[in-house]
Design goal:
The structure holds two protein chains of two kinds. Chain A is α+β, with helices and mostly antiparallel strands. Chain A folds into two domains: 8-17 and 33-101 and 168-186 and 197-249, no CATH class; 106-161, no CATH class. Chain A is 21% helix and 38% strand. Chain A has helices at 8-28, 106-111, 113-129, 144-147, 152-161; strands spanning 36-43, 47-56, 62-66, 75-76, 79-85, 88-98, 167-177, 180-186, 189-190, 193-194, 204-208, 212-222, 225-235, 240-249, 267-268. In chain A, strands 3, 4, 5, 6, 7, 8, 9 and 10 form an eight-stranded antiparallel beta sheet that branches. A six-stranded antiparallel beta sheet of chain A has the order 2-1-14-13-12-11, with no helix packed on it. Chain A is elongated. Chain B is mainly beta. Chain B folds into two domains: 72-173, Roll (SH3 type barrels); 176-294, L,D-transpeptidase catalytic domain-like (Beta Barrel), CATH 2.40.440. Helix content of chain B is 11%, strand content 30%. The radius of gyration of chain B is 20 Å and the shape is globular. In chain B, 43% of the residues are buried. Residues 1-70 and 73-79 of chain B have low confidence and may be disordered. Classes of the chains: A alpha+beta, B mainly beta. The A-B interface holds A 26-30, 257-275 and B 47-49, 51-52, 55-57, 59, 87, 102-108, 134-136, 138, 171-175, 204, 208, 217, 219-225, 228, 231-232, 234, 239, 242, 245-248, 250-253, 255, 268-271, 283-289. Strand 15 (267-268) of chain A pairs parallel with strand 15 of chain B. Chain A: Residues 1-31 form the signal peptide.
Chain lengths: 275, 296
């Protein structure tokens, strides 16, 4: 279903650029640019470490791109571009599909069983009895921001016709500049039906406590700097994590420039030199 | 070794008087020597007082590597003592400068206290660096790693380096680099990479050449007993062919010369002779500033 990742050439060029920049930086100046970092996707144990992934430790701009992710049942995309530079970073993902088809991997399905079982039975009953009924009674109330936009009839049709991606979007972008971030998801679809993007405020959470916590436009600051992520999903209290499009802007390191060396004052002494 | 010439002009005196006079002179010299060594506190007579009147004398020529002191010395109690890394000593086991023609980012360090010099970060101590030598000790940083800095050493052999703990050091920045081109016999002064001065120079004779490589401004001093230069700027390097010279340790220096006809010639014992206006600019340059000597 999925294809292999590429970007070997890009990564090599990026590494060489970084190495050259480090060398130049070592002999040319004292400026301490803010480090930054960007990656396209991270899934615990699946796309781990994240891909594609770039870091800029000296302020020089680093970029990488990926046409396909490693084969996995949870995430598919057609293009990912990540860029990191001096106090800025950005990610652009195209044609993203989360749980594209065929259901969840067994271990995840087992972990989510308590959540999925009532949904599945509720759907089965609803679609069998009256597909025009309100879905919200059959689903966890926390999903209302998403599910209230869905047509029950279409949901039941989907159940019969096949399995569209759980979530998909034509374009996901995030970017940070210093300690501010931007976020955009174009054409977000839940089970094939287009829905409004939750938010647009930062840290719009859809908690399905205690199993799943979904955050759109997640923003936070820590020792690494300011980070903005398009979507972050925590399952089983963080044991399993999915992050889509993450950009981190570090803060400039607080290393003062060296003070100017003093002009020497000649001392009176005797030291025979070679003349 | 060339030393002080004691003049015992006995011509008009009787023989016993001449002998007594000479003996008194020798005694006086010894007293002065002991007094000076006591004041300096240097066991190897670092600031040797019996120096040349004019600075330019015929030195003893010996093979490179001879003379000087080892990095560690046995004390009277059998304990191993670290030798100070100075222009008068040899530090054995000091790692060799890996890039003798490469510039640095201008960071220099000054030991805040006597601090060990290590062969590698956290490794064996091979010598000791003191806060003051001729002047305040400032050394160029050529590498840094995990709180350690690698510096050029002022001791023999040429190209010696060592690692110091960063916490023992004061840091500063010098924008200058001094380039000495032996082939064209020119000296160029750069500030932040831009040339701000260029002068013809005199360099070492073929049998006492000015050593090439990466060194630094070690000190700045005046010496009322010599007339060839108002200020002398000793470097961290030494003559490779003169283990000692004029009572000193063969230290290479930058200075002027009474006549300008030496400029553009290879006639010194290793020192770099510069015109007066060059010296005026160079005396403004911070100690620890890198001096890159090449064959261009």
């Amino acid at each position: 279903m999925k294809r292999r990742a590429l970007a070997g050439v890009g990564a090599t060029v990026g590494s060489l650029t970084a190495a050259t920049a480090l060398l130049i930086g070592a002999v040319s100046g004292h400026a301490s640019p803010a480090p930054s970092e960007a990656y396209g996707a991270f899934i615990t144990g699946v796309i781990d470490p994240p891909q594609p992934h770039v870091q800029s430790t000296d302020g020089t701009e680093q970029s990488d791109s990926l046409a396909e992710l490693p084969d996995n049942p949870l995430l598919d995309l057609r293009a990912a571009t990540v860029t990191a530079g001096d106090s800025h970073a950005s990610v652009e993902l195209a044609n993203v599909e989360i749980v594209p088809s065929g259901g969840l991997p067994p271990e995840l399905e087992e972990a989510l069983q308590p959540l999925l079982d009532p949904v599945e039975s509720g759907f089965t009953q609803l679609c069998a009895e009256d597909p025009t009924q309100d879905l919200s009674e059959q689903l966890p109330a926390e999903l209302d921001p998403l599910t209230e936009q869905l047509s029950p009839q279409q949901m039941c049709d989907i159940a019969e016709d096949g399995t569209p991606a759980l979530l998909s979007a034509d374009l996901i972008t995030v970017a940070c500049e210093g300690d501010s971030g931007t976020f955009e998801i174009a054409n977000l679809r839940l089970l094939g039906q287009e829905i409004e993007v939750p938010g647009p405020d930062a840290n719009t959470e859809i908690p399905l406590d205690p199993l799943v916590n979904i955050t759109f436009n997640k923003q936070f600051s820590d020792d690494d700097g300011f980070t903005t992520q398009a979507m972050a999903v925590e399952i089983a209290e963080g044991e399993f994590e999915v992050v889509l499009a993450s950009a981190t802007c570090g803060t400039a390191q607080d290393e003062p420039e060296e003070p100017m060396a003093p002009k020497p004052t000649p001392v009176e002494t005797q030291l025979p030199v070679t003349g | 070794m060339t030393g002080r010439h004691t003049s015992a002009t006995a011509g008009a005196r009787t023989w016993p008087t001449a002998v007594l006079s000479a003996a008194a002179g020798v005694l006086a010299v010894l007293v002065v020597l002991v007094g000076l060594m006591w004041m300096i506190g240097s066991p190897d007579g670092a600031e040797y007082p019996g120096r040349a009147e004019q600075g330019e004398q015929t030195g003893e020529t010996s093979r490179p590597g001879q003379g000087g002191q080892a990095g560690q010395a046995e004390s009277g109690t059998g304990a191993v003592e670290l030798v100070d890394s100075t222009t008068h000593t040899t530090v054995e086991g000091a790692p060799v400068d890996p890039a003798p023609q490469q510039g640095t980012d201008g960071v220099i360090v000054h030991p805040l206290r006597p601090t060990p010099v290590h062969a590698e970060p956290g490794g064996e101590a091979i010598a000791r660096m003191t806060p003051t030598q001729i002047s305040d000790t400032w050394l160029p940083v050529i590498d840094e790693r995990d709180g350690w800095v690698r510096v050029l050493l002022p001791s023999r052999p040429n190209g010696s380096t060592g690692w110091l703990r960063g916490e023992d050091l004061e840091r500063a920045f010098t924008p200058y680099t001094i380039h000495v081109h032996l082939g064209s016999m020119t000296l160029r002064l750069l500030s932040r990479g831009d040339e701000i001065g260029s002068w013809p120079i005199g360099i070492g004779k073929p049998d006492t050449p000015t050593p090439a490589g990466r060194t630094f401004l070690l000190g700045s001093f005046t010496d009322a007993a010599q007339q060839f230069s108002p200020v002398i700027l000793p470097l961290g390097s030494h003559s490779d062919t003169l283990d000692d010279f004029g009572g000193g340790s063969g230290t290479v220096a930058i200075h002027t010369w009474p006549t300008e006809d030496v400029l553009g010639t290879a006639t010194s014992h290793g020192c770099i002779r510069v015109p007066r206006d060059a010296l005026d600019r160079l005396t403004e340059v911070p100690l620890g500033t890198l001096v890159l000597v090449d064959q261009q």
